[in-house]
User: Fold this.
Amino acid sequence: MLKTSKSCIAGFRIQPGPAEESLTAATPVGRLCPTGSALPRGAVWMLVAFLLGTGSARAESWDLQPHSVGWHASLAINQRGRDMGAGEAFAWWRLPWAWTLGSGWQVESHLTAGLGWLGGRGATAGSFRTGPAFSLRPPGAPFWIELGISPTVLTRHTFGGLDLGIGFQFTSYAGMNWDISRHWGLGYRFEHMSNASLSSSNPGLNSHTFTVYYRF
Assistant:
């Protein structure tokens, strides 16, 4: 049973309720997570809860070959992250769990990993991240939605006057991808990276991220 009276967890607020604890949507997010938006992270957990309560599930074998590989190019958009950018090579693996919703939407679980850099203001850090993700595809559509969250390791956390606090961060994201051919695709996603207040310095970075990928 949770005993904390208030905390910021994935875009939700936990506070005392009529019974033991009640879970309510954090509105506005800025009051609970002043370092940046946590909506993509909250969307991931809402999707998990939704899938557990609806649709049909199926289990498949896990293929060790990546489902897709590609490149992310990011540009920070919030004031604290001005002049910051990132690049990353990534791979997606399909996990064995998938769902078909009543409307025909296909939902698949994935493991993602990326290796790249984050830089700006005269400094550059290496980066590595890995974590779960979900893809949601309408019936017969060439486009699909992605939601995910990845623990992220940076080789440095200071960039000129910007201090991200520590070298361990969380990156949450939500985006849209389009399969333009059998193998190639393009995408866009909104990303939020912060250390979840593990450090007293937690400015957070919000980024526009553009993707090109190859599907095997």
About this structure: Residues 1-39 have pLDDT under 50 and may be disordered.
